[in-house]
Amino acid sequence: MTQQKIKLGPFDIGMMVLSIVAVVNISVLMVMQLSADVRHYLLIMDTFICVVFLMHFFYNLAHSKDRRLYFKEHWIDFVASIPAIEIFRLARFLQVLRVIRLIKQTRHLMLSSLKDRIQTTLATMMVALVILIGASGLSIYLIEFDLPNANIRTAEDAIWWSLVTISTVGYGDYYPVSTAGRVVSILLIISGVSLFGVISGYIASYFITPQEKDQLAVQNKRIIKMQQHVEELDESVQALHNKLDKLLELKQQKPPEQQ
């Protein structure tokens, strides 16, 4: 059990953040009096987050050495990830308690796990996408739904607009008509361009052929050797300078008749 807890990767930390977001979401649903559309929107986002949880759970289960032990230790994650069932959502509070316990037990290992730049970047992008899509969609709905000339009036419209906007596809079937809505759009477009640009760069790095990687490795070795040769030449030149300085000092110290 201890070994599996120690193996804490960037995606596990990302799931921790999404767990807290999911608990906040379900707390709002349970505590606050919301309109039907806002409640429907939060339920859609809850389902979307649950899909991410289930993908992460089954991926770890498939790659676990002891699947029975993994399921025994993480069954609460599976139960808490089942959407559309009210009683199962309450299990997410237990999930957050487990997350807090994991953070306390492995906080000294988080920095080492975050050294994997590719996984850390992809995990950060995934969490950022979920939060941006949810927050921007809810914002645009609350801003636009009651305007007389608005065309974003339902939760589905807001989520569709958010997905299309952050991906910079821009179908134009749904668009904001207010100044505040356009500001949200601008921020979401800039975020989408930045996020997908980084993701595309990292995905492209996976398609580098082994030959290209070998060539890069050879070039790096040559560069290192050249740097070593340059350093050796610098040392040799410095040694020659020192010898010349000593010879000049000796020459100056001799009497004129000996020179």
TrEMBL record:
Annotated TM spans: 13-34, 41-59, 121-143, 158-177, 184-208
A Pfam family hit: Ion_trans
Coiled coil: 223-250
Ranges for domain Ion transport: 19-208
One GO molecular-function entry: voltage-gated potassium channel activity
Sorted UniProt keywords: Coiled coil, Ion channel, Ion transport, Membrane, Potassium, Potassium channel, Potassium transport, Transmembrane, Transmembrane helix, Transport
Major localization class: membrane
Cell location: Membrane
InterPro entries to which the protein is assigned, alphabetical: Ion_trans_dom (IPR005821), VG_K_chnl (IPR028325)
Example of a GO biological process term: action potential
Membrane topology designation: Multi-pass membrane protein
GO cellular component: voltage-gated potassium channel complex
Protein name, UniProt field: Ion transport domain-containing protein
Species, as recorded: Lacimicrobium alkaliphilum
